[in-house]
Amino acid sequence: LLATTGERLLLGVDLGGSAVKYGLITSEGAIVDHGKIPTLVERGPEDILHRIACALDELLARDGRRRTDILAVGFGSPGPLSTQRGVVIDTPNLQWKDVPVQATLEQDLGLPLVLHNDANAAAYGEFWKGAGREAQIMVLYTLGTGVGGGICLNNDLLVGPGENAGELGHMVLDPHGPQCPCGHFGCLEAFSAAKAIVRDMLIAIASGEETSLKAVDQAAITAKRIFEAARDGDAVARRLFHRAGWCLGLASGNLVNVLNAEMFVFGGAMSGAWEILHPAILEGARASAMAMPFEEIKFVRAELGENAGMIGAAGLALRAYGS
Amino acid sequence: LLATTGERLLLGVDLGGSAVKYGLITSEGAIVDHGKIPTLVERGPEDILHRIACALDELLARDGRRRTDILAVGFGSPGPLSTQRGVVIDTPNLQWKDVPVQATLEQDLGLPLVLHNDANAAAYGEFWKGAGREAQIMVLYTLGTGVGGGICLNNDLLVGPGENAGELGHMVLDPHGPQCPCGHFGCLEAFSAAKAIVRDMLIAIASGEETSLKAVDQAAITAKRIFEAARDGDAVARRLFHRAGWCLGLASGNLVNVLNAEMFVFGGAMSGAWEILHPAILEGARASAMAMPFEEIKFVRAELGENAGMIGAAGLALRAYGS
Q1: B93 in helix, strand or coil?
Q2: Pairing between strand A81-82 and A138-143?
Q3: Does ipTM top 0.90?
């Protein structure tokens, strides 16, 4: 295992609000080994970056690898951030401001690093090795507290001149719709994020609608709990998940018309509600898609699960530093 | 002029419902000579294509050129069409069905030809030699009876796997909005096309709203007439043009978020209403754009006017057949 082909390996890091996932990845996208450490946001960025460097060193040691076996490190982080400058500009989740991730870790590790938005890294992962690997144009939605995403086309990740492409949750679908945390009205995220579903369930309860959750403590009303109620036939819960899926479909159909995107991949915790979301996604997409035959458009669940970001980050390191 | 550098030239053709524009174009995008013939839709596709071949031959003869001076022909046509197959599949305007434009004209002219959607050709023209030449990602809207468009990124036209990318008029902006000719509800085109403005002016008159156009014969109420009324201060006319611009801005802001598109170019007859459209476009874009600093986004008029399609088609011929 030590003296093999001399193939250079990659390190992929996926920085999340509660945990950092990292892995040793081949240039074919296979996971050789991987690990996870808690983020411990309260300790601040220097501490987190230092512990990530140590964890990567330990991973290499555990597998009998040297730093010279590694081509580069890919690092996925919540944004906004700048890949060009290697800096995380601002993350509400982590409360980081202008953190020079690339410079810090390149110095600590002695390896080249590329920094990307976490949702973009996940999109690249699914495009490279997951559900989107057959697609010409793939759109990934990451469904969680918010709605993020990424777009791959021309066999590459679309980063955009502002380094911030793929803000799919902020396509306005109805300017008369509810306000989004971004301040605008009627963004996809304001309909389809976990937060939006919880918000509207609380509104429904407050306005006296008949739902099995009306007796439940407000703090216990999560998107997961609402999904379970929907699965048990609760009409309000079903309506909210249906709308979430319908809006995801409508947004997808818009991207069929604009880009001819032909594969839509849904990942993130809320994609677990697939049995309710999927038919609603199809229905919503039929209300907008017209630039391609509908049967040629694919709507599928992500395949790489929580490894998508780590694998994608490694792929982006290969893209940046591979020959 | 005859015995110059030996540079190969291009022919660009822009097929429209009433006229065919064509030109002899250098590989730098400069017009050497150009002409125009009536389309005469009623005579059918064979007649039109034959007259185009004759017109191109005459153009060459007039300029003392031979066919061997020409690298290739670019042909812009209303769609849907297939560039790969060289076939116009269906055009409501021209009433063409499965017309093999590429095979027919390649045989007649003895020159290679590439067929593209007319709005895509215009987009490529503006990107290559017009308002978008500084942009990394440029979106062109063609504002006329309907709303068409095209997207250029990665220094290329985005065609898409369905060969039908850039259907910008069919981004749904409000599923509760008016019905679009495509059958869906609340498409951009259903708010911002000339047809939509005329439709809603007639509705406003029928419902007794106070407008200077209420005494005008219905058949004389065109978008141009409504624009003149708006310029003269008519409140209903102003409201309709404001909404048209606002929706164009909202759609543009969505593309800022999805693609980081940073330049939006507005062409077509209705872009003549720029003085009213432009401020409304900015206002609409502010209601959706959030993925780039607003001041970095450009909203401009097209520069090539009615030559955009012809120049762009020539550019696409160079793209397809240039070394």
Answers
A1: coil
A2: unpaired
A3: yes
Which residues from chain B sit within 8 angstroms of residue A165, using beta carbons? 258-260, 291
Contact B265, B125 (CB under 8 A): no
Comparing CB atoms, the residue among B160, B167, B262 nearest residue A137 is: B160
Closest CA to A80 of A179, A190, A183, A165: A165
| Distance between B162 CA and the closest CA of chain A, angstroms | 6
**Taking CB atoms and an 8 Å cutoff, what residues of chain B touch A175?**
173-174, 250, 287
Q: Is pLDDT at A219 greater than 80 in this prediction? A: yes
pTM of the entire predicted model:
0.95
H or E stretch at A25: strand A19-25
Instruction: Give Cα B138 to chain centroid, integer Å.
Output: 14
Give every CB contact of residue A256 below 8 A, 6+ residues apart in sequence.
Answer: A262, A285, A288, A289, A290, A291, A292, A297, B162
Which one of A259, A262, A283, A296 would you mutate to disrupt binding with B, by most B Cβ within 10 Å of its Cβ? A259
Phi, psi angle pair for A31, to nearest 5°: -85, 120
Q: Distance between CA B189 and CA B195 in Å, rounded?
A: 9
The runs of H, that is alpha helices, within chain B are 45-62, 101-109, 118-129, 189-192, 194-206, 223-231, 235-259, 274-286, 308-321
Q: CA-CA distance, B166 to A291, in Å (whole number)?
A: 9
Summarize the confidence of residues A222-241 as an average pLDDT. 98
DSSP A132: T
Q: Which residues pair with A266 in a beta bridge?
A: A141, A301
Evaluate whether B1 touches B64 at the Cβ level (below 8 Å): yes
CA B188 to chain centre: 15
Per the document, the length of chain A is 323
Q: pLDDT, tens digit, for every residue of B30-67?
A: 999 999 999 999 999 999 999 999 999 999 999 999 99
Query: For chain A, what percent of residues have pLDDT higher than 70?
Result: 98
What's the whole-number mean pLDDT along residues A116-130?
A: 97
CA–CA separation, A262 vs A277, rounded Å?
18
d(CA B281, CA B259): 18
Paired residues of B38 in beta bridges: B19
Over residues B279-304, the pLDDT tens digits come to 999 999 999 999 999 999 999 999 99
Round to whole Å and give the CA distance between B264 and B253: 10
Bridge partners, A139 (sequence order): A151, A264
CB A34 within 8 A of CB A307: yes
Residue A15 in contact with residue A77, Cβ under 8 Å?
yes
Closest residue in chain B to residue A177, using alpha carbons only? B174
> pLDDT at residue B270 above 70?
yes
Of the residues A141, A257, A283, A294, the best mutation for testing chain B's interface (the one with the most B CB atoms within 10 Å of its CB) is A257
Query: CA B106 to CA A131: how far, in whole Å?
Result: 41
Q: Do B161 and A262 touch (CB under 8 A)?
A: yes
Cis peptide before A161 (omega within 30 of 0): no
CA distances from A184 to A149, A173, A177, A179, B259 (A): 18, 11, 9, 6, 18
- Nearest residue to B48 via CA among B37, B57, B64: B37
Tell me if A259 and B160 make a contact (CB, 8 A cut-off): yes
Cα(B53)–Cα(B108) distance, integer angstroms: 7
